[in-house]
Amino acid sequence: MAAAFQAGRRRANVPPAPFEGRWTMTGVSTGPGMPDPAVPPAAGPAVPPSSALVAAGLVANERRAALFDAAAALTAAGVEVAAAFDQVIAALTAGAWRGPAADDWGRELGRARADVTGALDEAARGCAWKAAAQPERVRADDPRARRPAPLPGFQLDGR
Amino acid sequence: MPGPSERVVFDLALADALVTRLAALRGLLWRYSRTAAALLAPLGWPVDPAGALRQGAGWADASATALTRRLALARAADVPPPGQAAGGLVSLTSRPDPFAGDSDAARAAGAGLGRELVGAALRPRPDPAVLADLATRLRAGAADPELVAGFVEAVGAARLAAVLRRAEGVPGGGFRIDATAGYQVHATRGGPRPAADVRGWRLPPAVGDALTAALGAALATFSRAGRLTADWLGRFNARGEPGAAEVTLLGPLLGHGRFAPATLRLLGDALFAGTAVGGDRYGVRPAPLGQPGTAGEAGAVRGVIEITDVGLFGDEPTGPRRARYAAALLRAIADTPAIAASFAADHVEKILAGSRLGALPAPIRHGVPEPVARAWEHLVARAGGAEARRADPAGAATFAARLALTVYLYRGAHEDPAHRRDTSWPPPPGMRAAFGEVVRTWRAELYASVVSLLPAGTVPRPAPGAGPGATGPALGPWGRRPAGSRDAARIPAEVWAALLGEALAAGGPGAAALAADAALAAQELEQSVWAATRGYRGDGHVAYPASPRALGRLQQAALLSFFLATLADTAAALTLRAELQAGDEARRLGLMVDELAAIARAIRPTDPIGTLTGLAVTVPVADAAAAARPTGQPVPSRPALAAIEAVLAAGSVAPGWRAAYRTSATAVWLRRADDPILPVEVTDAAGHRRRYTGDPRADGFITGAADDFLDPSGDPLDEGRMSPAQRGAYLRWLASPAIVANNDNIPVIPVLAARPGD
């Protein structure tokens, strides 16, 4: 997750490029309407802004970048959490504990895995959709032109 | 996770991994809940997975706690520890957890129960109904290690000793209870004494017993949790004195739960350290509690207070309470197979000396308590039994070796039949029966040693007045550090004979069972030799000097000859003793010789199966005849001795048969150039047709330099210079069909001759 988060931060530091008409990203439409919920949008590389955009006073939408970063981080978290759940499930199915209560607890474990990983997946998709709905460029005086400040006292990589 | 009683199985290693992984999952979910907050809060929470993550972390946390408790309950369950074959599996019926997996709640409940018990039991006049109720509640939770930990910590070792004095009805003790300071206990120095003691008040026996049983079960759980250490015992006295352990108070508790082997070992070593059986008097004194490596010894080394097993303040060291404690402890150790053999091996000399002392006739006031003497016998029988052998093979082999050697050396020092001298103190019949248990458990090793073509080992020569443990080598069958279960096979036949002889002297069904074992061993030997040499006669055109089974028959005869010689020696020793003594003891010994004669008559050296049948029929008849005789005879009957002599004479194989066979077999090999070895083709035990030429290399006995027992000129090396691998290959080659069948000088088997009465 830390690597994904750092990658997102590096992308956010790419200098603005001139406007080249309609912005597109792989597999994601920036047009009106929501994307296919079964296919979460990917945070593809930003196309360098043209000099025309710079001339028009438009800058990168930092909120959009932050949402993509969050989506990537939540996706990575989902993978890591699922693996940790699977380690527990492997020990249980290998025979660590057998009996009726163990069977019940195994079902609880499965539900907990589905709940947590489902919540992370849904959150990652939600962030990606909201990011995709954002314009890539905003006016320099738009609040979205500034990177949202992280909360003090929180580790961004979860460590 | 509370619920009804259910059957559960834990794989302890995997379950530990499961708990560890759950804890890691909990940590991961908690960290990501904070990460999600850090990422999403500045964005105005467009989505919120943090709640699900926190919920998952909470669930994992609760699950890990509950599972940890379940595992602790499973480990504390009063069932035998998992064996090697079970793969660390614990299978038990779990009861509903009244604390729903909450360890803190269990500990708090135990602490509350402890405080209640202290208040109820140490007040001047305890209410029996309240104590009975507390005993019931404690008994119900006694298998819960966390409840018990809370209980024992709240009561404290010193106040627990005072409670046990009340429960067991032990008066006095030189302590007082300060009711104004939470019932703390102190040594009496003119202070107030509790009214209960002053007025001679006692708990009703039923309540005392219930309280003792509950405290026993709870302390057993405390012990299995590894908490009943020397340090804890150093505070276990009702005077509150540091470093004094009133372990005698544990006596009535030991039968109410399975105490940890480490605790039993600690107490047992202190018991023997304080037991003196030298001279003609049994004595007990306070002894250090804690062997090297334990807390007590470490404390002593650090200069902290040394912990001492003081028995019981105010009680005679050799009083009945101490004797009951010693017997209960020895029986608890005997019934713990994991430590029984190694513990008994460490104390075998003292056990046998005490047992001989305790069997001295009535005019001598030896002072050995009867329960202790019986517990020694129980310990020897269990330490040498099959269960201890399975649980601790190396320790069991060491015990068998040291037991046999102790008996052998003692007999050598005190018995000299040639000069009609016997100054020995015979072990009691119960101990002789216990020897029989050991001999029967190690039957295969005993008779393997008897029929081996090379002596199994050498007997260490002890320094005068020292036991085998003190003088023997550090490793091997005699040492204190067991080298392995194979050591029992290295016990020389003469040492085994001493133990077998004492076991035979027990007489009765035990002696007949030992004879049946000998016959069975002979039959098994014959069967194995036959199975390995089937079909050797080939086409009938080759005439071998001997049958390839001739060696097997010789070994079979030697085995039975060994048994008969041991039996005859035992009969002779009993006869000598009977002649040296007079009266009832002599009559009893005379009856035993009659029994041995009946066994001797039943043995058919050439017919092991017939021997087994004969033993089953003849001996009980002899027993009945002896029992029917009203007074017996003052000395062994001449017909009985004559019968033993006749059987021995007919069945004896010359003592030098091993060396004679090795010489003749080697001659077959050395003369092969002039007198070619005829190949022998047999079907072996596995059903494969094999051709033996007599050449150890061609026949596969020598596979490389490690097991090559021939020198460069092709002669066998000197046996004393052979390595174990060379020795093993040499013995297999000596017994191989071609070598045996081409040997025309195999020692004669005299038992083949018909004997009177056949």
UniProtKB/TrEMBL annotation, chain B:
It comes from the Bacteria. Residues 462-483 are annotated as: Disordered. This is Uncharacterized protein.
